[in-house]
């Protein structure tokens, strides 16, 4: 079987999210056939995304049925064609910003559980606590080991639950207030990202401070953010602020991967009934109104607070709340893949001359 025949067989594999076959979508970068061995490079950009893993599995099955031995790899041409010197964080495949319009909605909880959840799937993950005014991620993962410094004066981040960590909390006293103006924020954010030995990462999750201030603007202007997750609670006040965050990302042409609703229904362990303490369904309705993906709801569960205070992410625990975090994690990974595949497909479509040309 030659390259053309392999390509024809791949036309039977459809991308369920984009609604066409992977060849027509331009998701097959390269095919090399040597006897019964076939190497295929695919435009897949979200490692350990359940939907991309399933897609790769279907491709393998199609080729094995033809008596071939498939060797699959993945790369995003536009990004991989840029030299390391031209990139910020060249060894990080995806930067995921976790944001909220206001404080107190559990943004850091979602960021910590997202990072731990991606690591649980098998991905190489970093977590950057960019909330310079109130960094608390180290407590939430029970990490008290400070970063090590190299001879080149770069920082080697500590690791917990398979996640590399960096936070301003490592560099200040436990009770020291952080009082900085905009230029100082810009400088420290740059140092804590570019001067850190992150290594090769599939995902770098960034826990942004609440609101739409200097830190958020610095990140969006200097970092190659793949997409953002907006965290809200169901009530109208939180949704009003979430809308401001949505507008901020739109102005900077940053893709929003979805809306996560925290502190949803409370299931009373004593009476067995459910209580909508902060309202119900507001996050899902907000996502629908603004035509954004809804990532899922996290119940109001004391175990989440206990996990945060005790340093054990709930996503690693059994139970309904752990399942809720795992669903959000998988949806974030899947939507990251859609962003990349859609970008490759639309880019290659624009390169194809129309019949009139």
TrEMBL record:
Q: Which InterPro entries match?
A: FSCA_dom_sf, MIP18-like, Mrp-like_CS, Mrp/NBP35_ATP-bd, NUBPL-like, P-loop_NTPase, YlxH/NBP35
Assigned keywords, A-Z: ATP-binding, Hydrolase, Iron, Iron-sulfur, Metal-binding, Nucleotide-binding
UniProt entry tagged with the keyword Secreted: no
Q: Where are the transmembrane segments?
A: none
**Superkingdom as given in the UniProt entry:** Archaea
Name its GO BP terms in alphabetical order: iron-sulfur cluster assembly
Q: Which is an annotated Pfam family here? A: FeS_assembly_P
* UniProt cross-references to Gene3D superfamilies, sorted A to Z: Fe-S cluster assembly (FSCA), P-loop containing nucleotide triphosphate hydrolases
Residues engaged in binding ATP: 101-108
Provide a Gene Ontology MF annotation, just one: ATP binding
Q: Where is the MIP18 family-like domain?
A: 3-63
Which CDD domains does the record match to this protein? Mrp_NBP35 (cd02037)
Q: How the protein assembles, per its UniProt entry?
A: Homodimer.
Family per similarity comment: Belongs to the Mrp/NBP35 ATP-binding proteins family.
Q: What functional role does this protein have?
A: Binds and transfers iron-sulfur (Fe-S) clusters to target apoproteins. Can hydrolyze ATP.
Task: Tell me what this protein is called.
Answer: Iron-sulfur cluster carrier protein
Q: Which organism is it from?
A: Natrialba swarupiae
């Amino acid at each position: 079987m030659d390259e053309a025949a392999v390509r024809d067989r791949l036309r039977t594999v459809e991308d369920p999210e984009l609604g066409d076959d992977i060849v027509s979508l331009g998701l097959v970068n390269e095919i090399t056939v040597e006897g019964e061995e076939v190497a295929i490079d695919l435009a897949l950009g979200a490692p350990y995304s359940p939907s991309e893993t399933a897609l790769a599995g279907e491709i393998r099955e199609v080729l094995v049925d033809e008596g071939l031995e498939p060797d699959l790899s993945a790369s995003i041409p536009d990004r991989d064609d840029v030299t390391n010197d031209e990139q910020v964080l060249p060894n990080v495949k995806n930067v995921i910003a976790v944001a909220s319009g206001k404080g107190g909605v559990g943004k850091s909880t979602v960021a910590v559980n997202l990072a731990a959840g991606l690591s649980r799937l098998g991905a190489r993950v970093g977590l950057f606590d960019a909330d310079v005014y109130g960094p608390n991620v180290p407590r939430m993962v029970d990490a008290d080991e400070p970063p090590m410094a190299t001879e080149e004066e770069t920082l080697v981040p500590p690791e917990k639950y398979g996640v590399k960590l960096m936070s301003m909390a490592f560099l200040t006293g436990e009770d020291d207030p952080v009082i900085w103006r905009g230029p100082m924020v810009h400088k420290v954010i740059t140092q804590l990202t570019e001067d850190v030995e992150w290594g090769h990462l599939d995902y770098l999750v960034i826990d942004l401070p609440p609101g739409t201030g200097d830190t958020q603007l610095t990140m969006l202007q200097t970092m190659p953010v793949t997409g953002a997750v907006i965290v809200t609670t169901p009530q109208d006040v939180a949704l009003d602020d979430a809308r401001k965050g949505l507008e901020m990302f739109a102005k900077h042409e940053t893709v929003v991967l979805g809306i996560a609703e925290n502190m949803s229904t409370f299931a009373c362990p004593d009476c067995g009934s459910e209580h909508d303490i902060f309202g119900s369904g507001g996050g899902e309705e907000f996502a629908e109104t603004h035509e954004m993906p809804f990532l899922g709801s996290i119940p109001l569960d004391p175990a989440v607070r206990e996990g945060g205070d005790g340093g054990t992410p709930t996503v690693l625990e059994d139970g309904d709340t752990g399942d809720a975090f795992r669903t959000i994690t998988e949806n974030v990974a899947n939507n990251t893949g859609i962003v990349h595949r859609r970008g490759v497909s639309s880019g290659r479509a624009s390169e194809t001359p129309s019949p009139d040309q």
